[in-house]
User: Fold this.
Amino acid sequence: MIYFTPGPSQLYPTVKEHINNALQEGFCSISHRSKRYEAVHQQAVENLKLLLNIPADYHVFFLSSATEIWDRCIENLIIEDSIHFVNGSFSEKFYTNLKLLGRTAISINAEPGKGFHDINEIRIPKKSELISITHNETSTGVVFDNNLITSLRKKYPEKLIAVDAVSSAPYGKINFTDVDNLYFSVQKGFGLPAGLGVWIVNNHCIEKAKLLQDLDLPIGTYHNLPSFLKFDANHQTPSTPNMLAIYLLAHVTADFLKLGLKQIETDTEEKASLLYTMIENSNYLDAFVKDKRDQSQTVIVANSKIPVKTINTYLKDFDMQIGGGYGPWKDQHIRIANFPAISKEHVEKLIDALNNLQH
Ligand SMILES: *Cc1c(COP(=O)(O)O)cnc(C)c1O
Assistant:
């Protein structure tokens, strides 16, 4: 079965072999305080830094999921107030969680299927401590404009910028000097089993957490930034981490590095272009995101006249499965993941099948 579902998704082709190796090497039974574990942890961090061009003074921390990182981000980085770009369900969820943790926030909203572009139309209030950006809104297939991130950085240098890159990374072309922290979970673009969140933070974030600590404000118990930093010095985590996932991440990032990020980016764009062209020419699909600048390269969303259930029943014969709509669009949309684990051959096979679907 080829899973074009936007997370969990198709596993990267080398994952099975890496899992087998981890089991054979007994990696899942060793201590998370051992030298052997530390070496793998360090490798995962170094590979990620190389792959994503992460500056040397940024830190890479391992948590359980992106959802957990939302909470840690709120607890460690926001005393009172933040501002959120909301254009779908995931950006909305972070905004909602923030209020549950006793902070105030405002949102800047885009119409469904539309993005944000003009810095002159955006006003960030003085009291907003953090700007939250969802780089790839998985629910609607809208990508955030990287130029706008750069403009926000220039115009509001004193604000922390947090970027959810869950369904774009390793694709995304984000300049790390424009952001203070960026996070993702591994079951989307990295083609791994779910259960690991990666949080990349700079020293402004560490300083902010320490400021909260100095003010006697709670920043959480074990998964707070100063605690992560302390254990990171030994390539460890505060609690027992998902060691298998970190092992797999170390190996899959090594595979990505062999391929090169440039190649991954070119492949992603080529496959996305094939998919958008198919949708354009289809008599039962049309792109949900109309403006080409806003169209995600990694999660392609279309309105469908045929219910996704019918499409997936048909695709079963070809051993393929696509994603349904998210939230309010459950039955009207289809979503197609275009992560690195999906090859051009997979995409061509899917396009052939969808083109031949009679209705
Ligand atoms: C999937 C997703 C999340 C949540 O990831 P979890 O691993 O389930 O915590 C957050 N943001 C975006 C954009 C996502 O696509």
In short: The chain has a mean pLDDT of 97. The first helix runs from residue 15 to 24.
